[in-house]
């Protein structure tokens, strides 16, 4: 399997990183005379360089990550915005270094600002995978019932295509059951798998009987309806049993929550 190409945006970020660091150092050396380059100058310049590095490197990492836009993307974006705000704060602290503020206060401000960044970045970093895991678990829990509803929709369509008035009771029964299944709990919790499997097997059995009903309807004439009514009655009873399984499933899911 071929490796994915590196996005152009990531390349741009990585090229800008050393350029930004070099230009920032040159600006600092040009604007501040040699005799004025005290510890505050080193602290302020170091803070700005750290802010630039984090901002550009996080931007490159953001473009490289292949994540779901519906889950972790907002948290990745939040982390990127946090680094941009940190860079803006270090620039403000660099201007503050030109005032009579003491070295200790400036160092404390730089450390405090970095602590805020660490807390924000840590929160976004931890929250993203957690939300993704929760979303994946929720989707996995919903999958069996969604498959069942898709299968049920196919059964309803097949019954609707049978143009015999004798099939009307079955058509009404399966339509009512579809409405009930639509409003039922969509998640499948651990412990409800057996009922989900039983419901799926029951629906498969109904589908097989509908195939036989279609054949009987195709072979029967206009006045031949007894065989059709017998099969329709049997299918209506099967749908009623399936409705009972759905009720059991609702009770089981309610107990497991």
Quick synopsis:
This protein is mainly α. It contains seven helices and no strands. The chain has two domains: 130 residues; 96 residues.
Give the topology.
Elements: H1 8-31, H2 39-64, H3 73-96, H4 103-160, H5 168-182, H6 193-219, H7 226-256
Helix pairs in contact: 1-2, 2-3, 2-4, 3-4, 4-5, 4-6, 5-7, 6-7
Q: What integer value in Å does the Rg equal? A: 33 Å
Q: Helix coverage percent of residues?
A: over 70%
* Global geometry: rod-shaped
Q: Tell me the number of strands.
A: 0
Amount of beta strand = under 5%
Low-confidence stretches: none
- Report on the biggest sheet: none
**SSE arrangement, N to C:** HHHHHHH
Quaternary class: single chain
Distance between the termini: 43 Å
Q: Quickly give the structural class.
A: mainly alpha
What's the average pLDDT? 82
* Discrete helix count: 7
How many domain units? 2
Q: What report would you give on this structure?
A:
- With 257 residues, the chain is mainly alpha-helical.
- The chain has two domains: 8-137; 161-256.
- It has seven helices and no strands.
- The longest helix has 58 residues, at 103-160.
- It is rod-shaped and about 110 Å long.
- The two termini are 43 Å apart.
- The model has no long low-confidence stretch (mean pLDDT 82).
Keywords for this structure?
257 residues, mainly alpha, 2 domains, 7 helices
């Amino acid at each position: 399997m071929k490796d994915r190409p590196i996005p152009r945006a990531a390349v741009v970020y990585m090229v800008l990183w050393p350029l930004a660091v070099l230009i920032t150092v040159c600006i600092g050396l040009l604007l501040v005379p040699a005799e004025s380059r005290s510890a505050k100058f080193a602290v302020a310049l170091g803070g700005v360089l750290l802010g630039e590095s984090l901002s550009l490197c996080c931007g490159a990492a953001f473009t490289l990550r292949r994540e779901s836009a519906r889950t972790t993307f907002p948290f990745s974006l939040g982390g990127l915005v946090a680094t941009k705000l940190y860079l803006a704060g270090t620039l403000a602290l660099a201007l503050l270094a030109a005032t009579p503020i003491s070295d200790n206060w400036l160092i404390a401000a730089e450390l405090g600002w970095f602590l805020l960044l660490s807390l924000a970045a840590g929160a976004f970093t931890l929250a993203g995978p957690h939300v993704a895991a929760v979303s994946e678990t929720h989707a996995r829990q919903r999958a069996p019932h969604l498959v069942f509803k898709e299968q049920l929709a196919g059964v309803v369509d097949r019954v609707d295509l049978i143009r015999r008035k004798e099939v009307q009771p079955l058509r009404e029964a399966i339509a009512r059951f579809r409405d009930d299944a639509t409003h039922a709990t969509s998640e499948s919790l651990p412990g409800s798998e057996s009922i989900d499997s039983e419901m799926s097997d029951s629906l498969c059995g109904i589908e097989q009987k509908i195939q036989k009903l279609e054949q009987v309807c195709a072979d029967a004439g206009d006045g031949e309806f007894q065989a059709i009514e017998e099969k329709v009655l049997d299918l209506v009873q099967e749908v009623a049993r399936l409705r009972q399984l759905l009720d059991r499933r609702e009770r089981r899911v309610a107990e497991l929550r």
